[in-house]
Write a structure and sequence with these properties.
Number of domains: 1
Low-confidence stretches: 1-11
Number of strands: 0
Structural class: mainly alpha
Radius of gyration: 21 Å
Helix content: over 70%
Largest sheet: none
Strand content: under 5%
Shape: globular
Order of helices and strands: HHHHHHH
Mean pLDDT: 86
């Protein structure tokens, strides 16, 4: 009687591990959905419409869009494509990729986490201070501040947390976690430096 070599038999994953792998993909898909939804307003405003912008975005930015200022329109297009790029990063983090591709995606995930959570928290803190009467704004900007407090701030934070979860789940699926985690830390520290620099200089 011939005994079939064990290598010829199909490899079966443990049900628990397979379930964890499937569930571990949802943060990446959440990032993808977040990026696509966030890109839509940028493309709409870049194309000439200010639908939804007048009550939710600073008047100075709305005026730039209305006046079709070339550099601002270019910024809108670029930011829209950057958000779509973020969506692709999210999809990329759902499955194991090549060595350098994985490092790059985790690097981007770490950087996006810090940038988004940082800016979201700034919006929320500013809104809370205004609502509490600690910080004053022009009367016509009070409603706008609430949009940043209740919409844009939480939206940025949600995106940052989704990137963090997607990158973390991706790293957990790898054998050489320490090396890949290092690239995520570098991206996060670089984003933190840029965020601090923007606060100090008042740019961004």
């Amino acid at each position: 009687m011939t005994i079939k070599h064990s290598l010829d038999a199909p490899v079966r994953q443990e049900p628990g591990r397979a379930l964890r792998l499937r569930l571990g993909r949802w943060p990446g898909f959440a990032v993808a959905a977040w990026g696509v939804l966030f890109a839509l307003p940028s493309f709409v405003w870049a194309s000439g419409s200010t639908f939804g912008a007048r009550s939710t975005v600073a008047p100075s930015l709305v005026k730039l869009a209305d006046d079709r200022v070339a550099w601002f329109v270019a910024v809108l297009w670029v930011t829209g494509f950057l958000k779509l790029f973020g969506a692709l990063i999210g999809i990329g983090l759902t499955c194991r990729r090549g060595k350098w591709a994985g490092r790059f995606m985790v690097f981007c995930g770490g950087g996006a986490t810090v940038l988004l959570v940082w800016h979201g928290c700034l919006f929320v803190v500013h809104g809370v201070l205004v609502e509490a009467g600690v910080r004053a704004v022009a009367p016509d900007l009070a409603g706008l501040t609430r949009w940043y407090l209740y919409l844009w701030g939480p939206w940025f934070i949600a995106g940052g947390l989704a990137f963090a979860a997607a990158a973390t789940h991706y790293v957990r699926r790898l054998d050489g976690r320490r090396e890949v985690r290092f690239y995520g830390s570098v991206g996060a520290l670089g984003a933190l430096f840029l965020s601090l620099a923007s606060v100090v200089t008042g740019i961004g």
